[in-house]
């Protein structure tokens, strides 16, 4: 049977896609699945996409990292850093260049564009929903994303394929491989949701580990808005005794990091032993000084994030940082979709997580 798989990557995800391509070629005995493209820009900053070869009747997978702010382009002779809006526009250009010739188009967008603007709280735009409807209009058949800020965004396109993948298995494997002295029981380990939105993630992992969970909720000042949101007054904790217990704080992203560090301070003040942080997307928008200081003060033990978004070189140098490589998992997702297999096991791999924990308990 003819192998109709094809991959296209924007510059924002080029390094990871090259590795995914190598993995798929090794598995399937193929030379190359990558299709060359370019997105040249005019001096005004306007752009276009040019395909270097045909995509006719291809099962096409297009990669984009909307959070990669390391890429620049010239506009009016001056360097301009690419924003999420710029990356999304380039994605639409690639889809438009395919001009309806591909058999099927799947967009792999690890960080869901505008996923944080997922609901209305006033007279405001609903950007994530608009993006999903635009991709549907452009002919995208499937969207693969990871740990969406609010998984209910799948309801925007109920008849289209949206795969929201949990990296919980990779976090579990990394933690248990790095620390051989963890005691996985309710007396020694607890999962923590740093806010209400992270509760579902914490419950999922706490249930599989067979331990308790706690939750912080944010008290906000609703009288005014700072940087687009109501400022947080305090984090209030709901949960049991933390004295001498290892804790795992799990969330979808670290943005500026202020809230995460405040949560760590409160956990330490309640007697938590070690604090591990699981965050799918490590953005670190305000640099690393506050994390360096918090680590020196013993507020946390390790931060685990994935390579699903651009990782700043300075981040990879931190002693407290552990990078989780998702390239092989992405290759498995593509291979499964291309062969019309079920995504259930890959989307939420409960059984594999339980097997990993069971094996760890027997070996320790």
Walk me through this protein's architecture:
The protein has a seven-stranded mixed β-sheet with strand order 12-11-10-13-14-15-16, with helices on both faces. It has a five-stranded parallel β-sheet with strand order 1-4-7-8-9, sandwiched between helices. It has a two-stranded antiparallel sheet with strand order 2-3. The protein has eleven helices and 16 strands. It is globular. The protein has two domains: 161 residues, 3-Layer(aba) Sandwich (Rossmann fold); 170 residues, Rossmann fold (3-Layer(aba) Sandwich), CATH 3.40.50. A hairpin with a 2-residue loop joins strand 5 and strand 6. Helix content is 32%, strand content 23%. The termini are far apart. The chain is an alpha/beta fold and 364 residues long. Helix 1 crosses helix 9.
Concise description?
Helices cover 32% and strands 23% of the residues.
Name the features:
Rossmann fold, alpha/beta, 23% strand, 2 domains, 7-stranded mixed sheet, 5-stranded parallel sheet
Outline the secondary-structure elements:
Blueprint: E1 5-9, H1 14-28, E2 37-38, E3 50-51, E4 59-63, E5 72-75, E6 78-81, H2 84-98, E7 104-108, H3 127-138, E8 142-146, E9 161-165, H4 168-178, E10 189-193, H5 199-209, E11 212-220, E12 232-238, E13 246-254, H6 258-269, E14 275-282, H7 289-296, E15 302-306, H8 313-316, E16 321-324, H9 327-338, H10 344-347, H11 350-363
Parallel strand pairs: 1-4, 4-7, 7-8, 8-9, 10-11, 10-13, 13-14, 14-15, 15-16
Antiparallel strand pairs: 2-3, 5-6, 11-12
């Amino acid at each position: 049977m003819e192998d109709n798989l094809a991959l296209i990557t924007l510059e924002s995800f080029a390094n990871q896609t090259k590795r995914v391509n190598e993995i798929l070629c090794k598995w399937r005995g193929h030379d190359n699945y990558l299709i060359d493209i370019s997105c040249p820009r005019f001096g005004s900053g306007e752009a276009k996409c040019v395909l270097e070869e045909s995509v006719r009747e291809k099962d096409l997978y297009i990669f984009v990292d909307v959070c990669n702010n390391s890429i620049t382009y010239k506009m009016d002779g001056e360097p301009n850093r690419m924003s999420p809006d710029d990356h999304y526009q380039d994605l639409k250009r690639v889809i438009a260049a395919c001009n309806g010739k591909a058999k099927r188009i799947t967009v792999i967008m690890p960080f869901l564009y505008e996923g944080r603007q997922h609901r209305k709280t006033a007279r405001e735009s609903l950007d994530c929903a608009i993006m999903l409807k635009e991709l549907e209009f452009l002919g995208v058949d499937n969207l693969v994303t990871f740990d969406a800020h609010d998984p209910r965004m799948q309801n925007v396109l109920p008849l289209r394929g949206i795969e929201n993948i949990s990296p919980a298995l990779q976090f579990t494997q990394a933690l248990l491989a790095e620390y051989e002295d963890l005691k996985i029981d309710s007396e020694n380990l607890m999962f923590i949701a740093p806010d209400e939105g992270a509760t579902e993630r914490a419950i999922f992992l706490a249930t599989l580990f067979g331990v308790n969970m706690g939750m912080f909720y944010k008290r906000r000042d609703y009288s005014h808005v700072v940087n687009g949101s109501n400022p947080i007054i305090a984090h209030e904790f709901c949960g049991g005794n933390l004295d001498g217990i290892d804790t795992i704080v799990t969330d979808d992203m670290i943005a500026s990091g202020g809230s995460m560090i405040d949560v760590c301070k409160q956990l330490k003040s309640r007697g938590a032993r070690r604090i591990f942080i699981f965050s799918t997307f490590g953005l670190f928008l305000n640099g690393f000084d506050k994390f360096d200081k918090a680590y020196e003060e013993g507020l946390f033990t390790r931060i685990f994030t994935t390579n699903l978004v651009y990782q700043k070189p300075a981040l990879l140098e931190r002693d407290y940082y552990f990078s989780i490589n998702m390239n092989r998992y992405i290759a498995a997702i593509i291979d499964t979709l291309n062969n019309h297999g079920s995504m259930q096991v890959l989307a939420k791999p409960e059984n594999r997580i339980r097997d990993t924990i069971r094996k760890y308990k027997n070996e320790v």
